[in-house]
Amino acid sequence: AEEPPTIKELEATLTNPKCPIGKRMDAVFYLKYHGGEEAIKSLSKGLVSDSVLLNHEICYVMGQMQDPKALPILNKVLDDEKEHAVVRHEAAEALGAIGLEESLERLEKHATSKVTEIAETCVLAIDTIKFKLAEKKRKEKINNSEAKKKEDNEKKKYLSVDPAPPSRNKATTEQLTQTLTNTSKSLFERYRAMFALRDMGTKEAVEGLAKAFDDKSPVVRHEIAYVMGQMRNPQSIPHLRKVLENNSEHAMVRHEAAEALGSISTAEAVGILEGYKNDKQRIVSESCKVALDIADDWTDSPNAGTD
């Protein structure tokens, strides 16, 4: 078996603008698997790229690694008014994923940003961190080892660190859809319903999620596309297609729809992506190219089509 690439080799790929975007994105994920301070340093060197897609993915991965050593890098991205809003949004979400109390003050400062994507993401990240801190306190109080075991054994269906935990109450698809689409509720509550629908994984859950594509917030719409990609349910293809085909849709939503189609990776999904790999919006065209690479990987793998 060939040796997996070293951190230095991955950094060389990541920081090479002549390298195809798919390869550079792969390097980001390999660095995530390496983990640790060296990998975080290499990832931060990739942030000088002029690709919004790549920079936002680096911030996403830093959040997923949940390593506090990434905080200074993410803080700098969030504070940088010249940085693209999609990248700053991802940095704020990553601070929520890492979940430390020390991030609250900075997030509160940016929660009043004039840039909606950033303000909404910061509000959500604040609620997420407060929830995580409260949970930690609550768990410290549970000395009963049985109860603790039961909690630890609640298996997560997806390995991602989500912007909000799925709601645990036994709500129906309809109730969760109502919560998701109720704009008078907090983003945190609505996201909890969104992730609970994702975990249900049914056709009805897909249709419930799709209703939120009408939401006025691009942050909500992009997260819907993201969870559809995690679910890999072909039922969502017509909804994702509609998003990708809409040129007036926010680029961050179209990009997420493209990546979701790549994860679903049926012939129909691949056909849609082929049509947009030269899209005028660079984040969309790059996402289609990356998604086509992902689809290619899924179909080449021995477990293609199975979960």
How do you describe this structure in short?
Helices cover 67% and strands 0% of the residues. The chain is mostly helical and 307 residues long.
Report on this structure.
This protein has 307 residues and is mainly α. Helices cover 67% and strands 0% of the residues. The protein is built from 17 helices and no strands. Helix 10 runs parallel beside helix 12 (203-210), helix 13 packs parallel to helix 15 (251-264) and helix 15 (251-264) packs antiparallel against helix 16. The model is unreliable at 302-307 (pLDDT under 50).
Set out the fold topology.
Layout: H1 7-14, H2 21-34, H3 36-46, H4 52-65, H5 71-79, H6 85-98, H7 104-110, H8 116-141, H9 145-153, H10 173-181, H11 187-200, H12 203-210, H13 218-231, H14 237-245, H15 251-264, H16 267-274, H17 282-300
Helix pairs in contact: 1-2, 1-3, 2-3, 2-4, 3-4, 4-6, 5-6, 6-8, 7-8, 10-11, 10-12, 11-12, 11-13, 13-15, 14-15, 15-16, 15-17
Number of helices: 17
What is the strand content? under 5%
Q: What's the structural domain tally? A: 2
Strand tally is 0
Distance between the termini: 25 Å
Mean pLDDT: 93
Helix content: 55-70%
Q: Please identify the top-level CATH class of the largest domain.
A: Mainly Alpha
- What structural class is derived from the secondary structure elements? mainly alpha
Largest sheet: none
Indicate the CATH architecture of the largest domain: Alpha Horseshoe
Shape: globular
> If you compute it from the alpha carbons, what radius of gyration comes out, rounded to the nearest whole angstrom?
19 Å
Query: Strand-and-helix sequence, N→C?
Result: HHHHHHHHHHHHHHHHH
CATH homologous superfamily (4th level) name of the largest domain: Leucine-rich Repeat Variant
| CATH topology label of the largest domain | Leucine-rich Repeat Variant
Uncertain runs are 302-307
